[in-house]
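Next comes this protein:
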Amino acid sequence: MTTNTETLFSDASTAIPVLEMQGISKQFHGVPALQNVNLSIYGGEVHALMGENGAGKSTLMKILAGAYIADGGEIRINGQPLKITNPAIARQAGINLIYQELNVAPNLTVTENIFMGSELQRGQFLDRQGMEAEAKQVLASLGATFKASDIVGTLSIAEQQQVEIARALKDKSRVLVMDEPTAALSDRETERLFEVIRKLRRDGIAIIYISHRMEEIYALADRVSVLRDGQYIGSLLREEISPQRLVQMMVGRSMQDFYEHQRQLHPSSVVLEVRNIGDGRKVDGVSFELRAGEILGLAGLVGAGRTEVSRLIFGADPKVSGEILLNGKKVEINSPSDAINAGIGYVPEDRKDQGLFLEMSCRKNIALNTLKREAKGGIVNWGAVNQLAKGAVENFNIRLANLELRALDLSGGNQQKLLLARWLAIKPQILMLDEPTRGVDIGAKSEIYKIISELAAQGVAILMVSSELPEIVGMSDRVLVMREGRLVGELDDSPEQKITQENIMQYATGAAEVQAV
């Protein structure tokens, strides 16, 4: 089936969608999660579903997959009404949902995973030969490089994802829902997944693709539909998609209002001075100043040494050269405890592995850095801790049912705000942010930008590492650019050194040095 959007939708009045969801509504404990949502998907189409966390995307898809039952509305498959009251009915209708957290049995073979719950039988015995032959055929159609006899636990995350796709194809899937499928994949694995998705589209399968990553939407989507606050906002054809329109639809305001920060042209006194620091490996002789109330962007390509600089300042890694001055006085920072005591906070790049304690409650995560302060005679004042946590949840608009909820159970954006709340509880004079909006949706990004701007307005000195150039350009008062472990450029938004994506990349790639020769 053709995937040309002009052909696909030129005669929409006569084409019958493979899937229609009409007037879908759902409440939880009297609170509306979906309100009269409409969605239509055609065969051979990659249809992106976007919206900030809490917009209703997951609820809508769980209704489609039979995990939830809608309070109202109708689902049609090829024009025929279908009442989906459990997952088995959805699968029989050719609807399969691949969750972000993969649903595989790691101790079983690929074949056993593909046929789990629908094993073939020959008389009273399992038809293992028949299942393996069919599994091989499905894997070959996907271009998989692993074997049907391999144990799934030995496969990479990307390969395990292919096992789930193979299971859906074995079930003769008409509609395949993929929820943030690239969250745990490398760039190479992501491109391989894209090849599989394009092949499935050519084979006529309708794919609903949930993602907050704009670049993936541009690469794959034939159409995009947007939900906001449980309501259907609208759909765009591929040629209509733009960052400006998507942001407007998702958050209800224009791209021009997205970045909250007003550039600070005359910042205050120097708070942090870094002189010639290095680690003997990835950082070589880095020096700079950071002022109170300033947002200093640290840019560069992957591997340039940006994260390593932050970790050296925070004492997470040992430095072999250089010194650090706070408010004009030299300080010895040899551990994160030294940094915290000096009023330096650090939000790391990987919030799950290096930032949050996922199995601990939100209350404890927020209060972790201040427990010593709240303890008298070795006994923690839990009343004060509770007040601190409640205030942080309100101030940062962290969406959770109660303070005892595990950090693991929050969305990416709420996890990031939880981590910010913990570091701001120490009232830092310097806050280092490494990829502060990585893995969060557009709505959460907007909220985090607002928090960062408010902190700068209060006089907090902020060092922000980011790989997203629009974020660096939109939020920074000044930008330092690194390449191969060294600082190679500074942009201060003067006429000669404007803060633009082009100027940042000139320094990051070495093109500025080539032009100067």
